[in-house]
Design brief:
Blueprint lengths: L6 E4 L2 E4 L10 H7 L6 E4 L7 E6 L4 E4 L3 H28 L3 H4 L4 H9 L6 H8 L3 H20 L11 H6 L15 H4 L5 H14 L1 H7 L43 E7 L10 E9 L7 E7 L2 E7 L8 E3 L3 E7 L5 E9 L2 E7 L2 E4 L1 E9 L2 E11 L2 E6 L3 E7 L12 H4 L5 H8 L7 E7 L4 E6 L14 E2 L18 E3 L5 E4 L21 H16 L5 H8 L5 H12 L6 H7 L10 H21 L10 H9 L3 H4 L3 H24 L8 H4 L1 E4 L10 H4 L1 E5 L20 E3 L2 E5 L7 E3 L17 H5 L4 E2 L4 H6 L1 E8 L2
Parallel strand pairs: 3-30, 5-8, 12-21
Antiparallel strand pairs: 1-2, 4-5, 4-30, 6-7, 6-23, 7-26, 7-27, 8-9, 9-10, 10-11, 11-19, 12-13, 12-18, 13-14, 15-16, 16-17, 17-18, 19-20, 20-22, 24-25, 27-28, 28-29
Helix pairs in contact: 2-6, 9-10, 15-18, 17-20
């Protein structure tokens, strides 16, 4: 557990009263030695007045300050105590400085990060989030730097020393600047479809427009619209393989899908008579957790919930008046332009007015163990050049070049909203990521607003790369935020979203055509409306069960198709037909089902001539082919052909499951195949994996259940809801939450993995909010005082 020690200031150094240290020590002992103090008294230069930090038994820091500056200074300080290494890597990923600590393998990733760096007006950038955003970011990063100074003080008797992660990695953290929180790499992976455009172009080159359009799950159903004369030959998603969001796993060489669920329920349907709001954002599940829970209290602030460690404020949670949660709203916020290059001078590209010269920026990239490399960053009028072959270049236009598009900082306005009207005003500031944000307040209102900065395309869909020369495919501004989908106090009594299509039929704007299948939201609606229609009142316990629900609607549909095929009784058909479509970790038939899905995807994709899509093909698309069999896919008697495919693939899946789990189906279980490992970015270094990695654990569900546990090709869970919240507007102290594996990123801390058992069992802890409840449950008290 964290050491309880007293600390005082001598000159400009932190002095720690503790015993002398012996050397050398085992890695795990060293990890304990360097934990930051979370109990006692600290003098922290930069504060204006005293700040109290009360941590509860689950590691949640409740920060009480007397002014806004000190609140965010303390947030930066406290989060850095728990997550400094994670924050440093996130910052370096955004700066394009990973090669300095990872070596040559990260150079191309660094180049892309620098290409995507924000280069616009800084005053407009800060003011887009909130009028005081620059002051908040300055205080927050000053707090981070105060913690770094406390760790890196030179004298032997000062500070605990660098966290073990830095010792293993062999480098030290560097000071933060406010601009470091304006990371655009974190936004890239959630702003659109550059990769999808290249996939679609590749499909057209192979299959033609008609066939390529037919095999894609586009909604609204549209035909791909390649520009006349455009050449898609050689275009493939692999061209952008080094464009990786900064939240992706960063591996240190030795020597990731996104989704979410949220819903808000009117008090007329609940046992408390007040709205209940639930949210579980889905991202990569790793150690440390992507989310960090914190409570911020100062004049004008009393907000609790989760955010990303490197950002100030609360991204998702509640204040005294309102609660909110979000899921990704699949807007297309990116477009690729094919620029024709001058054969005589590849720095020139074609425009309607002749050749134009690219803007070139020269930069030096430092590389661990190697001399630095000099690189040229190139830009056309559309944006950064991400790829070129001497004849063509791909330039990216995306919303990240606009002010106010660093991820989640729009929450600085939401955090202080007190009613629906103020919430709606805040939605105008929330530009990235694009989200479906559900709302509830203490006055009994509920609502939802799907928000994000939305390019206005008047004459094309945005589904394919377009020629950049003629100027015919240019954005015409942005869709007004008020014209994006939103609702207030709907007659149904609840709103649920799960990354499905939120735009209405015949929506006038081309904002996006790729959404998550509606299976999760349909299951949420089925459960909530079922309780409502039964006359029972919805409880917090009902919401707990729903967030961890593992009933699969696609499995139910597939079992029904199997029954319709009138199969001869075999062990496989009998097992499958008697199943209730619940993907529990103990279920043997769930294991058979998942193996069957892989086989079905493979066979249907091969029949469609798109074998390359089989691993990424939405199950919704496969079920559509099976539910409405066509002669082109299944032969003259399409129904009989479909039935034959169902039965043959099921029998094949049975044999494969025997190979995976043994010949006795009584001993099969989904959890033996479907496991999760919490992998740290340092675990490939010597002696690091045993200290840092967690698991494996068996897991229930899959990517189509409300408890989404989406997996890789080997059935291992890669992502899902690492953070869950259930917020009770009738009594905030009754709200519930869980994070995983823990609040701290330091392996010596008692809060490194203490939340993992709760999360894995689908359990929660109380999200205490009132000062009385916080005081009653405080385990560690840290008093921060100014110099």
């Amino acid at each position: 557990m964290h050491r309880r020690i007293s600390v005082f200031l001598v000159g400009c150094f932190f002095v720690v009263v503790s015993g002398a240290q012996e050397a050398p020590k085992a890695v795990d002992v060293r990890a304990l030695d360097v934990l930051s103090p979370i109990h006692g008294n600290l003098v922290v230069p930069g504060l204006r007045k005293q700040v109290s930090v009360l941590r509860d038994r689950w590691g949640i820091a409740h920060i009480y300050a007397k002014n806004q500056h000190d609140l965010f200074f303390a947030q930066g300080f406290v989060v850095a105590q728990d997550r400094l290494f994670q924050m440093e890597m996130w910052k370096r990923a955004g700066q394009g400085r990973l090669a300095e600590v990872l070596g040559p393998s990260a150079v191309q990733r660094d180049i892309n990060a620098r290409l995507l760096r924000y280069r616009g007006d800084m005053k407009a950038e800060y003011e887009s989030y909130s009028p005081d955003a620059e002051a908040i970011l300055s205080a927050f990063t000053d707090g981070i730097n105060a913690e770094i100074r406390s760790l890196t003080a030179k004298t032997k008797k000062t500070g605990p020393g660098l966290p073990i992660e830095f010792q293993l990695a062999g480098f030290a953290p560097e000071p933060w600047k406010p601009q470091d929180c304006l990371n655009r790499m974190a936004a890239f992976s959630v702003t659109g479809n550059a990769f999808s455009e290249l996939r679609d172009a590749e499909l057209i080159a192979k299959l033609g427009v008609e066939k390529a359009s037919a095999v894609l799950s586009l909604d609204p159903k549209v035909k791909l619209d390649p520009a006349a004369g455009v050449d898609f030959g050689g275009l493939t998603p692999s061209l952008l393989k080094n464009l990786i969001g900064s939240d992706a796993r960063i591996e240190f060489p030795s020597d990731g899908k996104q989704g979410s669920n949220d819903w808000t329920i009117s008090g007329r349907l609940t046992s408390t008579g007040k709205p209940i709001l639930a949210n579980d954002p889905h991202r990569v599940v790793a150690v440390p957790s992507l989310r960090y829970i914190v409570h911020l209290v100062a004049p004008g602030w009393d907000v609790i919930g989760a955010g990303e460690p490197g950002l100030p404020g609360i991204a998702v949670g509640h204040n005294q008046h309102i609660a909110w949660g979000f899921t990704i709203f699949g807007l297309d916020q990116q477009d690729l332009y094919i620029e024709d290059l001058n054969p005589q001078d590849p720095l020139q590209y074609k425009t309607a007015n002749g050749w134009a010269r690219m803007q070139v920026e020269h930069e030096s990239i430092a590389i661990k163990g190697k001399p630095p490399v000099e690189v040229d960053l190139k830009f056309t009028r559309h944006g950064p050049v991400l790829w070129e072959d001497g004849k063509r270049a791909l330039a990216l236009r995306w919303v990240g070049a606009e002010p106010g598009t660093a991820g989640y900082l729009g929450s600085l306005a939401v955090d202080r909203a007190t009613n629906w009207n103020e919430f709606e005003d805040a939605m105008k500031r929330w530009k990235v990521p694009s989200e479906n944000i559900v709302y509830a307040d203490i006055d009994g209102n509920i609502g939802e607003h799907s928000t994000g900065l939305t390019p206005l395309r008047r004459n094309w869909t945005g589904l394919l790369p377009v020629p950049g020369a003629a100027g015919e495919y240019e954005w015409s501004g942005y869709v007004p935020n008020s014209e994006l989908p939103h609702s207030f106090n709907p007659s149904s009594g609840f709103v649920a979203t799960a990354n499905h299509k939120m735009i209405p039929e015949n929506y006038p704007y081309n904002v996006g055509f790729e959404w998550a299948p509606p299976d999760r939201v349909h299951r949420i609606e089925e459960v909530v409306s079922g309780i409502r229609d039964s006359g029972k009142k919805i409880t917090l316990e009902d919401m707990e069960k729903l967030q961890t629900d593992v009933v699969s609607l696609p499995a139910r549909q597939l079992v029904n198709l199997l029954k319709e095929s009138s199969p001869n009784p075999t062990p496989a058909t009998q097992m499958m037909q008697g199943w209730d479509a619940t993907l529990s970790r103990e279920s043997g038939v769930a294991a058979l089902y998942e193996v069957w899905l892989k086989e079905l995807r493979k066979v249907i994709a091969e029949k469609e001539g798109v074998a390359s899509l089989q691993d990424d093909w939405e199950l919704e698309n496969v079920l559509e082919f099976l539910s409405d069999p066509s002669p082109q896919v299944f032969g003259t008697d399409a129904v009989a052909g479909r039935n034959e495919v169902l039965l043959q693939t099921l029998e094949s899946a049975w044999k494969q499951t025997e190979q995976l789990l043994g010949t006795d189906p009584q001993k099969w279980s989904w959890g033996r195949l479907h496991t999760i490992k919490f992998l740290h970015s340092l675990d490939r270094l010597p002696d690091a994996a045993a200290l840092l990695d967690l698991g494996p654990l068996s897991r229930p569900g899959d990517g189509d259940t409300v408890n989404a546990t989406w997996a890789d090709k080997k059935f291992e869970q890669e992502g899902g809801g690492s953070y869950r919240e259930i917020l009770d507007t009738g009594d905030w102290d009754h709200s519930l939450a869980v994070n995983t594996p823990g609040q701290s990123g330091q392996p010596g801390s008692s809060h490194y993995s203490d939340l993992l058992p709760l999360w894995d069992k689908g359990e929660y802890f109380p999200l205490h909010y009132s000062r009385k409840a916080v005081e009653m449950n405080a385990r560690d008290r840290l008093m921060l005082a100014p110099n």
